[in-house]
Specification:
CATH architecture of the largest domain: 3-Layer(aba) Sandwich
Strand content: 15-25%
Helix content: 25-40%
CATH class of the largest domain: Alpha Beta
Oligomer: single chain
């Protein structure tokens, strides 16, 4: 391969990668690795924007989306962009919906890189041509129906004299036919198929936004599917499946029958923490919109926090009030010490099952965990199990500007309390995934709040709330903040953790 004439300080490389059909679970491990290490990410319209949660904060993110009639950048401009960014010595990740070499023009981009003497790598992706039908309960091959598959693009108008597709040949081919793109020409395409001998009663299914929470499927025949599209105002992007295998959908439809299918639910947690709630809701079929309102950052006085962690062996108790505090504490601890025994004989208390679990992940036992998930409950547990905390030295690892109930009450009981400010929550200002615009344009059925700070920062955005929007709170303290700021509370978790919140949402919808 030729060497770049620009001779950058370091050798750049461009990864032409498939982002899959939409479901984050179908993204390859290789793509996730590249997202975490790329200097520049160039992504398309059909890429799930939630992929961007894996991008390092210093990376440059460029949207190069193209959809029918709306091109942010022409293909020639994209080619030139990839060449320029790669030649500058960057690790460039070019993300394309589905697979880059299946009607993705990845081949053209690879040629441009070769012509410029630049290094590249191809990372195949799961194509919507197979994934979308599968999520609609349609196997594209089946022993009882067909052993062949034809994939074609409906990008060109079949009535063009110089159309590159031979509709007569495609119509005559046996087996399943899958069409990518071309929804706006579905009437002309089905007419062309019938004109060239395809039986009018041939089953057809159109799968819109396949593999995502927005998926919907429209079924019909070659003769009537175009009319059904008009009647239902069925829009792109969609995959069209022609053939007898479509009949299996009635029996095999699994994805669209899940409990929360058809519900769009907003998750406002910090981007790094949204995964557990988001994935849990997606498993139930919800269309999850991540709109992070907070970001977790190191404390203002990092040196002071480090000093308290260094002196942890001098305390009798270490109290954690959140998983974030646990993570921040032990990350600092292991920067300062190589041996876990340096923590001394301290006992550990944790508020909430998620907090306790995070402690255990660092291979430490939890000595005290209140049944209730609020700070006040730990005071009762201390008194019930230990009688008195008088003269006990307690280190409280928690967030900046947290409620002062716990340190005040412990001090009133005679304890000697030091607060180790482990982290702070700040308003999230980065909306690279476009969550705010999507919320304003498409609305939602429910919005979830997992802390008072998520409520406060969401309300500070001053967004117009869609009519009928329901709210879900992780617990009583968050609920009170919601009410104080004028929000109604429709759902409240019985215990202040993510599994309980998910269960409460499911119960609210009666599923």
């Amino acid at each position: 391969m030729k060497t770049s004439k620009l001779s950058p300080l370091r050798q750049g490389i461009c990864y032409l990668a498939g982002a899959g059909p939409g479901d984050l679970g179908l993204v390859t491990i290789r793509v996730k690795e590249l997202l975490e290490t790329a200097d520049v990410v160039v992504f398309d319209y059909l890429c799930n924007p939630d992929l961007l949660r894996w991008v390092q904060t210093c990376a440059e993110i460029i949207y190069a989306g193209k959809k029918a009639g709306q091109h942010t950048m022409r293909q020639e401009e994209i080619n030139q962009l990839l060449v320029e960014k790669t030649a500058a010595g960057n690790r460039v990740l070019r993300l394309k919906g589905g697979d880059p070499f299946l009607f993705g023009r990845g081949g053209e981009e690879a040629e441009a890189l070769v012509d410029a003497g630049l290094a590249f790598e191809i990372v195949p992706g799961v194509s919507s041509a197979i994934a979308a039908p599968a999520y609609a309960g349609i196997p594209v091959t089946h022993r009882d129906f067909t052993s062949s598959l034809t994939i074609f693009t409906g990008h060109e108008d079949p009535n063009k004299p110089d159309n590159s597709l031979d509709y007569a040949r495609i119509a005559a081919l046996p087996g399943t036919k899958v069409m990518l793109m071309g929804m706006e020409r579905i009437g002309a395409i089905t007419a062309a198929f019938q004109a060239h001998g395809m039986a009018p009663e041939t089953p057809v299914a159109l799968v819109r936004w396949g593999t995502t929470g927005k998926q919907e499927t429209l079924s019909g025949s070659v003769a009537d599917i175009a009319q059904k599209v008009d009647d239902a105002s069925f829009k792109a992007p969609a995959v069209a499946v022609f053939g007898e295998v479509v009949k299996l959908r009635e029996k095999l439809n699994w994805f669209e029958n899940r409990p929360l299918s058809g519900k769009r639910i907003v998750v406002t947690r910090a981007r790094q923490q949204a995964g557990l709630l988001s994935s849990g809701l997606r498993e139930l079929g919800a269309d999850v919109l991540e709109l992070p309102t907070i970001r977790i950052e190191p404390p203002t006085d990092l040196k002071g926090f480090g000093q308290l962690v260094q002196d942890v062996h001098m305390y009798d108790w270490l109290i954690f009030t959140s998983p974030n505090g646990v993570t921040a504490f032990f990350e600092m601890f292991y920067k300062l010490f190589a041996d876990a025994r340096e923590i001394g004989g301290i006992r550990i208390a944790a508020i909430g099952s998620a907090t306790a679990q995070r402690v255990r992940e660092y291979r430490f036992a939890v000595d005290l965990q209140p049944a209730e998930y609020v700070a006040e409950a730990i005071l009762e547990e201390f008194q019930k199990n230990f009688g008195s905390v008088e003269n006990q030295r307690i280190l409280l690892a928690r967030a900046e500007r947290a409620r002062d109930v716990l340190p005040k009450e412990l001090t009133a009981l005679g304890a000697i309390v030091d607060e180790a400010i482990a982290y702070r929550t700040v308003p999230e200002t980065d909306d690279a995934a476009g969550g705010i615009a999507q919320f304003e344009a498409e609305g939602a059925d429910m919005i979830t709040f997992t802390s008072s700070s998520t409520v406060e920062n969401f309300m500070a955005l001053k967004l117009r709330l869609p009519e009928g929007l329901k709210t879900a709170s992780i617990g009583p303290i968050t609920s009170q903040t919601m009410r104080d700021l004028g929000l109604r509370v429709d759902v409240e978790a019985k215990q202040s953790d993510i599994p309980s919140l998910k269960a409460a949402i499911r119960s609210y919808y009666g599923v």
